[in-house]
UniProtKB/TrEMBL annotation:
GO cellular component labels: cytosol; DNA helicase complex
UniProtKB keywords: ATP-binding, Helicase, Hydrolase, Nucleotide-binding
Occurrences of domain UvrD-like helicase C-terminal (ranges): 1-46
Lineage of origin: Bacteria, Bacillati, Bacillota, Clostridia, Eubacteriales
Gene3D superfamilies xrefs: P-loop containing nucleotide triphosphate hydrolases
Entry keyword Hydrolase: yes
Annotated InterPro entries: DNA_helicase_UvrD-like_C, DNA_helicase_UvrD/REP, P-loop_NTPase
Protein name per the record: UvrD-like helicase C-terminal domain-containing protein
Gene Ontology BP, a term: recombinational repair
Molecular function (Gene Ontology), one example: DNA binding
Recorded superkingdom: Bacteria
Entry keyword Nucleotide-binding: yes
Length: 131
């Protein structure tokens, strides 16, 4: 059975794999994860929240082992060096993207300060635009 789109949520340690399976049933958890991700025909979406229930979480070892976190991330047409206008902080420039979290963008504002944001949140909420 295959699906056009497959969504796997909470791809974080202690959820995938489950905390109780890390020592005993890790191979079964790995197999189930593999079966899930190989059901995607067109699109595979993996969600790894930075925190869960108020605690910071690491990305699932299965995502790391499969190098699935190296997949392309949408930069919405923004590139390093682009001048941007942030709704709250004003004019700035894209200084870079975080190597470990491609959605995290670093902006340098005209006041000389650097600030980091989720690019997806900025775009989805119309908080940023190209100058």
């Amino acid at each position: 059975m295959e699906f056009k789109n497959v969504y796997v949520i909470n791809c974080v340690e202690e959820t995938i794999p489950h905390a109780s399976s890390i020592k005993e049933n890790i191979e079964e958890e790995r197999r189930l994860f593999y079966v899930g991700i190989t059901r995607a025909i067109d699109n595979l979406y993996l969600f790894s929240p930075r925190s869960r229930k108020g605690q910071f979480k690491d990305v699932s070892r299965f995502v790391v082992e499969g190098k699935l976190n190296d997949m392309p991330v949408d930069t919405y047409g923004y590139e390093i060096g682009n001048k941007v206008a942030h709704r709250t902080y004003g004019i700035g420039e894209i200084a870079g993207f975080d190597e470990n979290d491609k959605d995290k963008i670093k902006l340098k504002f005209d006041d000389g300060l650097f600030r980091s944001f989720s690019l997806k949140i900025l775009v989805d909420n119309n908080l940023i635009s190209k100058c």
